[in-house]
Design brief:
With 294 residues, this protein is mainly α. It has a domain of 197 residues. It has twelve helices and two strands. The longest helix has 36 residues. The radius of gyration is 19 Å and the shape is globular. The C terminus is likely disordered.
Length: 294
C-alpha cells in the first residue's frame, strides 16, 4: 500500500514538473515581451495553441523531431509580425492600446483555429522518439514525456544563458531597468524589442509543440495555460527569471499533487498558493522584502 502511494506521488511529481516547465516557457515569453515594451501580451495563450496545432500538422509530414525545430522558427516570425503590427503602436501612442489589441488577437486566433480544425479536440499522434516506458523507482513513466521534459529544460537553460551570459542579455537587462540611460549611451532598444518579441513568441510556440503529444489540443487550450502563466508571474515577479522558474515549478508540483488526491481542487490549489505568496512575498518569490533590495 505504501509503495503504491509513493509510486502515485512520484508519477504526479513528474507530471507536475512537466506541466511546470510548459508554464515556465509561457511565463518567460510574457516576461521578455514586457521587459522592454511594457506590454502584457494577452494573445500569448493563443500563440501557444497555434504552436500545438502547427506541431501536429507538420508532424504528419515531417515527424515530431522536425516539427520541434520548425515550430519555434515559424512562431518567431509570427512574433516579429505581431511586434510590427501591434506592439509598436505603444510607441506611437495612437489608436487602440496594445493590451486590447492583443486580447482581440487572441479571440481572432482562437476562432480561426476553431474554423480551420473544428471545435472538438484534435487527435495527436505520439512522438516517434523513444516509444515505451521507463522504470523509475518502481513506477513506469513514458519515455516520450521525459524527452519533452529534457527539451523544455534545455530551452529554459539556453534562455537563461542568453539573458545572463551575453552582451545581448546585458543590454536587455539594463534597458529594462533604465531605458533612458541605455539610450543616452547611444544604444537603440528597438531592435532588442523586436528580438524579444520573436524570442517570447518562439518560446510559446515551442511550449505548444512540446505539449502537442501530451495535452488535449483544442482552440481554447491556451486559456488555461495563460491563466497559470499569470499566476506564475504574480508569484515569481515578472522581472525575475529565477522567480518565474521557481514559481512555475511550485505551481506545477502543487497542481500535480492535488490532482492525485483531490482532482476537483487542483485548480483552486494554485490560486491558494498565489494568495499565500502575495501575503508572504508581495514583491515576488525571490524579490525584495519590506522595500529593500534582495
Amino acid at each position: 500500500m505504501l509503495l503504491a502511494l509513493i509510486a502515485v506521488i512520484l508519477e504526479q511529481l513528474l507530471d507536475g514538473l512537466l506541466s511546470g516547465v510548459f508554464v515556465v516557457l509561457i511565463a518567460l515569453g510574457l516576461s521578455l515581451i514586457f521587459a522592454l515594451g511594457g506590454i502584457v501580451n494577452m494573445a500569448h495563450g493563443a500563440l501557444y495553441a497555434i504552436g500545438a496545432y502547427l506541431a501536429v500538422v507538420l508532424a504528419r509530414h515531417t515527424g515530431f523531431a522536425a516539427a520541434f525545430l520548425a515550430v519555434p522558427v515559424v512562431a518567431a516570425l509570427l512574433g516579429l509580425a505581431i511586434e510590427r503590427a501591434v506592439f509598436r503602436r505603444e510607441g506611437r501612442r495612437e489608436g487602440v492600446p496594445p493590451l486590447l489589441l492583443t486580447f482581440a488577437l487572441a479571440l481572432v486566433a482562437e476562432q480561426a483555429l476553431g474554423l480551420i480544425f473544428g471545435a472538438s479536440p484534435l487527435p495527436s499522434p505520439t512522438p516517434g522518439v523513444l516509444p515505451g516506458e521507463l522504470q523509475l523507482g518502481g513506477i513506469s513513466y513514458p519515455k516520450d514525456r521525459l524527452v519533452v521534459l529534457a527539451i523544455a529544460l534545455v530551452a529554459i537553460t539556453l534562455t537563461a544563458l542568453l539573458l545572463y551570459r551575453t552582451p545581448f542579455g546585458r543590454v536587455v537587462r539594463a534597458g529594462a531597468q533604465n531605458p533612458e540611460m541605455v539610450g543616452a549611451l547611444g544604444i537603440a532598444l528597438a531592435p532588442y524589442r523586436m528580438a524579444l518579441a520573436a524570442l517570447g513568441v518562439a518560446l510559446a510556440g515551442l511550449a505548444g509543440a512540446l505539449s502537442a503529444s501530451i495535452v488535449a489540443i483544442g482552440p481554447a487550450m491556451g486559456q488555461d495555460v495563460l491563466t497559470a502563466a499569470f499566476v506564475v508571474v504574480t508569484i515569481g515577479g515578472i522581472d525575475s527569471f529565477a522567480g518565474l522558474v521557481a514559481a512555475a515549478l511550485a505551481v506545477g508540483l502543487v497542481h500535480g499533487l492535488t490532482a492525485a488526491f483531490e482532482p476537483a481542487a487542483s485548480e483552486a490549489a494554485i490560486f491558494i498558493l498565489m494568495a499565500l505568496a502575495l501575503l508572504l512575498r508581495p514583491r515576488g518569490l525571490l524579490g525584495a522584502r519590506d522595500g529593500k533590495r534582495a
